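Q: Please design a sequence for this.
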């Protein structure tokens, strides 16, 4: 019995085992094996005691402590996930309001659209790119030195 059973299924399983053991006891008695009969009756009686204790609530077969701990774990996981989301949102907001160039030694998130400052030969310029796989798309052959998040789009006014 390796899978978790609910209380009713456990009681039904115990009934089956008690009936089987009592049947074995009768078989031993018919064969004249008093020791086998006594052992089977003893085991059946033991299971019957366990069954009555489960029915009376003496054994907590639903394992409420385990369920309580799992619930606490799940709540803690959710709080941690929420905290990480909040941290990421705050970092994104911080980068959006920042008006400074950031060294490529602090790379943006993979897939993030950014403005880059790059050199190609003697020329220097600013361009829009996306950071992916440790580089800036379209600028593999350029020396990107700094980046900054894309600015917020214009609000209101004429388009």
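A: Design:
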């Amino acid at each position: 019995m390796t899978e978790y059973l609910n209380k009713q299924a456990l009681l039904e399983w115990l009934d089956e085992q008690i009936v089987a053991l009592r049947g074995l006891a009768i078989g031993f008695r018919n064969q004249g094996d008093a020791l086998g009969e006594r052992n089977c009756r003893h085991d059946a009686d033991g299971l019957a005691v366990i069954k009555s204790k489960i029915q009376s609530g003496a054994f907590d077969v639903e394992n409420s402590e385990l369920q309580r701990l799992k619930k606490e774990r799940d709540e803690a996981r959710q709080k941690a996930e929420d905290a990480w989301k909040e941290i990421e949102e705050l970092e994104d907001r911080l980068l959006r309001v920042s008006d400074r160039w950031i060294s490529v030694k602090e790379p943006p998130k993979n897939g993030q659209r950014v403005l880059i400052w790059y050199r190609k030969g003697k020329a220097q310029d600013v361009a829009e790119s996306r950071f992916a796989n440790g580089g800036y798309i379209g600028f593999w052959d350029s020396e990107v030195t700094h980046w900054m998040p894309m600015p917020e789009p214009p609000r209101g006014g004429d388009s």
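Q: Thanks. Anything notable?
A: The beta strands are 102-103, 113-120, 123-132, 135-136, 143-149. The chain has a mean pLDDT of 84.
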